[in-house]
Hints:
The chain is α+β, with helices and mostly antiparallel strands. Helix content is about 25%, strand content about 25%. The chain has helices at about 65-70, 75, 90-100, 105-110, 150-155, 185-190, 240-245, 255, 270-280, 285-290, 295-300, 330-335, 410, 440-480; strands spanning about 20, 135-145, 160-170, 175-180, 195-210, 215-220, 225, 310-325, 340-350, 355, 365, 370-375, 390-405, 420-425, 430, 505, 515. Strands 2-3-4-6-5 form a five-stranded mixed barrel. Strands 8-9-12-14-13 form a five-stranded mixed beta barrel. Strand 5 and strand 6 (about 215-220) form a beta hairpin. Helix 4 crosses helix 12 (about 330-335). The model is unreliable at about 1-40, about 45-55 and about 475-515 (pLDDT under 50).
Amino acid sequence: MHQGSRRPLQSVEGWVALAITLLLSITPATAQEEPATDGVGKLPWNDQQTQLGNLPARRLTHARELLNLLSIDESQLAAFADGEPLGDQDEETVIRILYRLPRFARNDLYRWAQPIKSLSAIEETPNDHRADTFLIRGRTTRIERVEILTEAVERLEFDHYFRVSVDLDASPHAAVLCCRDLPVAWASAKGVLGEPIVAYGLFLKVGNDDGERSEFAFATPHIGWLPSQPNAATGITTDLARLATLGMDISLFDEVRNLNHKPITKADRECFYQLLSTLGNADPTSLRANARPTVDLAPLLQEPATQHGRLMIVRGTARRAINILVDDEDIQERFGIDHYYQIDVFIPLGDQVIRLGKQADGESPIFTNSFPVTVCVLQLPPGLPEGADIREEVSIPSACFKLWAYRSRFVSGFAQNQLQVSPMFIGVEPRVIQFDSSHNPYTGFAVIGGFVALLGIAWFALWRAGKNDSKFKRNVLTRRREVQPGSSLNDAGIEEQDEPDFSQWETGEGGRVKDEG
Length: 517
């Protein structure tokens, strides 16, 4: 999809002339401003429904159908006892459902989901609604880790799960979500209670009921994290919090964070499309106002795990803009995306140098003038054409997605199996930078005329100066050295005039010589 290499960013205090050496496990190459041409096309992710094996081709209409196909039938669901909290009596069915939930396609959960306000309607007949799917939003109040019996671990392939208590938004009720995994930052940091979350949950049972407030139990394959405030303890930057308020699930970066320096894979898919949808529907003016004015390549290349979601303006020369069709039904249905544009942008390096590979390797890809980055957007503006051979100056407010690797002819020229590594961004609609060419055409002629006139004046002044010099030599110098008839050269007084004659000058104040004439 993209290609490129350049030099590392240098600071005033010492980065100048320092080439950033990237230990990227790739071999080096030398830098040219050549747009990438290979690897273009659909990103390598397929509809997740294909991973369900020999399931029926028809579209399923309820989670119970899929659970039944996965050997969890109505009798097991009916074993849940309502009116009491989740306990040991429920664990066998809970862990069986959690074991199967990774087989559920996100698109199915999206289609089946009901709004949370429908919960009150199922309190009367909860047994009729087992495995109904709900879109759950709220804030965490308690997190409990539940260990699984040792004898069950080997066949289940996981040894614990979590129960996350949540105060529901837009509902007087509470929920407890059973989930195998949590956002990575929650495991090591304190203060994650009160965090906004979003999840698709399968209803299991009604727990405690005090008459006004009930607790509903759900099983979910994933708890999305929507932090509303920066938090250094959990790694939430101002940019990540801003993306979360726009609807981006920040926990999706957890998996992508482990995929830097690697090609795009299915594991990147959900985060890629959710970020593309989030920014594609955001206000470009607001994002531009809050983004860093330039791309700082040094941390992007050296510490990519700290840069996910970083907002910055990608400004440079667009060399290619390719329309990528999205034929995955779930992406079209959930995000309304049937295509996007992949733009190769060469950003200027100034006096920086980027070297890919270890310096000791000898020849390696080096970028000295510009460095290629990839920006994916939902739409192109007027003035930015599609094509594989364009040259337009663009400015694109963008969020860093990952540092990705792809095949390029430039890097392959140094080692056949080596990949180009460069940042991939997700951006809003680009802005084409137009240079002002609307000046009066006569202005140019006036400037040229003035320049010619100045040349003429200078030539005339030089000519006059030369003419005066000739006259002076003729009338003064020659006569002063002219030998009168009947005299010899000894009488001309030439020796007496070897040194300058300052007899007509006197010294002024401060020892300076002043001219009395």
